[in-house]
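tool_call predict_complex ligand=iron/sulfur cluster
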Amino acid sequence: MEKNIIVYFSGTGNTLHIAKHLAASMEDCKVLSIPQIIENPSLFEIPDRLGIMFPVHFQSVPFVVEYFISEILSSKKISDLGYLYVITDSTSHVKGAVHQKCAKLLSLSGVHASYYGHVIMPQNLTSHSKEDIQKIVSAADITMNHIAKDLKSENIKAASFIPLKRLTLALWTHLRNTHTNAAQYFSIDETRCTGCRRCYRTCPTNNIEMKSGSPLFLNHCIGCQSCINSCPQNAILKKNKQTNQYLLNGKHFYEEYRK
Ligand SMILES: Cc1cc2nc3c(=O)[nH]c(=O)nc-3n(C[C@H](O)[C@H](O)[C@H](O)COP(=O)(O)O)c2cc1C
Ligand code: SF4
Ligand code: SF4
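tool_result ok
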């Protein structure tokens, strides 16, 4: 059995940055991508210590993470799990119902996390200057050092609680569910697109088909920004406008989920 595994979902690189930082503070820690596990569930088996890391989407849990917990984690031998922790990231301390939603999903899968942590990272939907991104990431690194100490000692920290729990949870989940087709606002600048298929290969929900060498968006987009930010030509338009791609440490985040 593996000692330490971190599974993460990252649309634009922030969560992967956190996963790598925390993994480096542990002994022999494997870092696995949730969409890759969804494509090939045999990549993942229950370790002694498991971390689940993901960005807050609409104050809730992104669909791919929900799928991983409900369909994959629950199908494994979770009785072998010694210590489970959940680390989320978003642009502020306001986390809405994300921890409660995650706790509920875990509980339905028959498992409870001992520790919930949160890290503030740059907003990936709007543009920041390089300097602002660096400032936020440096502060995040300090938060991660505190979390790393807690995880080393296997400390316990409850999911953050918000009042009107049930109503708030339902409202945020509704908001997330009604934003499942963000790609309806996406189009392709055919003068820039080279048909390289990178957007198709990186979409965590398989929401992009290649038709006659050009991407076609289907209707189960979760708005993660992966395709937009990883396009080498910046050819994916939002509401017919080119976006300022979000680059962490000046790099295009790109992860391949299919050939
Ligand atoms: C679809 C979507 C919804 C988001 N919703 C929230 C939110 O409700 N609150 C918030 O503070 N940040 C929100 N964000 C910002 C991200 O949580 C934040 O930038 C995160 O660090 C991105 O992580 P990633 O690069 O690993 O995807 C949202 C981003 C996306 C793409
Ligand atoms: S990543 Fe960009 S250039 Fe490549 S196929 Fe997609 S839209 Fe076209
Ligand atoms: S179409 Fe783009 S924004 Fe939507 S889920 Fe796929 S990669 Fe994410």
